[in-house]
Design a protein that fits this description.
Largest sheet: 5 strands, antiparallel
Mean pLDDT: 92
Order of helices and strands: EHEHEHHHEEEEEEHEHEEHH
Radius of gyration: 19 Å
CATH architecture of the largest domain: 2-Layer Sandwich
Helix content: 25-40%
CATH superfamily of the largest domain: ATP-grasp fold, B domain
Strand order of the largest sheet: 10-9-8-11-12
CATH topology of the largest domain: D-amino Acid Aminotransferase, Chain A, domain 1
Number of strands: 12
Oligomer: single chain
Shape: globular
Distance between the termini: 12 Å
């Protein structure tokens, strides 16, 4: 590959996941420089991003943004209009995959098991529960477990949910309510057109929320996961099918819950992340390493696919 090409690493941005994006992007940029790339520019995305990209004239953009607008199709559409090549998924895929309800509409008819859910007005939660507890409330278009609340039968958050209790109901007008699936948290990364392996995530306390994902020591990663071979195969099959059905490019990551008392029938895909993290704690680099792919090799693989 021509390491004299100009790579702009797009990072930071305006979302709730800004700090994680900065870590991802800086890691990518440093890996490229360490591997002999002579023209690497880090661009912290502001509202002048189109003007800055036009001035920089990159040969390829490494999209290290997380959340909106870097993961929801907005930035992808802008770069399409500018004729730029960029890593990870394109406009249509990004629009669908960031939206948990649209993702279900694409995947469930093809036999991929996902939790049944319903959209609720946040105000209605102060009157009654939308379904039997325990259940999960989450924004329909945020990643990294931003704004997720698990409402338990023990009455946490109040019963009904108290107006004076902090939660996603104060920050989002509508939320997706899903039954809580007991069991184990697992994830599968897909690189190019191949699932890598299965990782189990064991938070030290609570659940695998934003802090647990990105704070060292709060979550144990078991890679590869200690699960039966048939369960691992089923997860990897679901992950690659979801990747293909959604039209993902580069890397994606499919997150699962597995009720191990129910065998394969207890396996549910929760969501597909089209802009998975590239931080030192991130799962895609960890699974790539398990398959013998170094961090710099992973970054270059993503750039190579973008250059097409």
């Amino acid at each position: 590959m021509n390491r004299d090409l100009h790579v702009v690493v797009l990072l930071g941005g305006l979302s709730a996941e800004r700090e994680v994006s900065l870590m991802s992007g800086r890691g990518v940029a440093q890996a490229l420089r360490d591997n002999g790339w002579s023209r690497v520019t880090e661009l912290d995305m502001g509202r002048d991003v189109a003007q800055r990209l036009a001035e920089l004239k990159p040969d390829v953009v490494f999209n290290a943004l997380h959340g909106t607008p870097g993961e929801d199709g907005s930035v992808q559409g802008m770069m399409d209009l500018m004729g730029l090549k960029y890593t990870h998924s394109g406009l249509e895929t990004s629009v669908i995959a960031i939206d948990k309800e649209l993702t279900k509409m694409v995947l469930v008819p093809h036999g991929i098991r996902m939790p049944e859910g319903e959209m609720v007005e946040s105000e209605s939660l102060f009157e009654s529960d939308p379904m039997a507890r325990p259940y999960v409330l989450k924004p329909v278009n945020e990643g990294s477990s931003v704004g997720v609340a698990i409402v338990t039968a023990e009455g946490n958050y109040g019963c009904p949910i108290g107006r004076d209790v902090e939660g996603p109901w104060h920050h989002f007008k509508r939320l997706l309510a899903e039954p809580f699936i007991r069991g184990r948290e697992l994830t599968v990364a897909v690189l190019g057109d191949e699932p890598l392996c299965v990782t189990e995530l064991k938070p030290v306390a609570g659940f695998y929320d934003y802090d647990a994902k990105y704070t060292d020591g709060l979550t144990e990663h078991v890679c590869p996961a200690e699960v039966p071979d048939e369960i691992a195969r089923a997860m990897m099959d679901m992950a690659i099918r979801a990747h293909r059905l959604l039209g993902c490019k580069g890397a994606s990551r499919a997150d699962f819950r597995w009720d191990d008392e129910r065998g394969e029938a207890g396996l549910y895909l929760l969501e597909v992340n089209t802009q998975p993290g590239m931080t030192p704690l991130s799962l895609v680099p960890e699974q790539a390493k398990q398959r013998g792919i170094s961090y710099p090799q992973l970054v270059e693989t993503l750039i190579e696919e973008a250059l097409g």
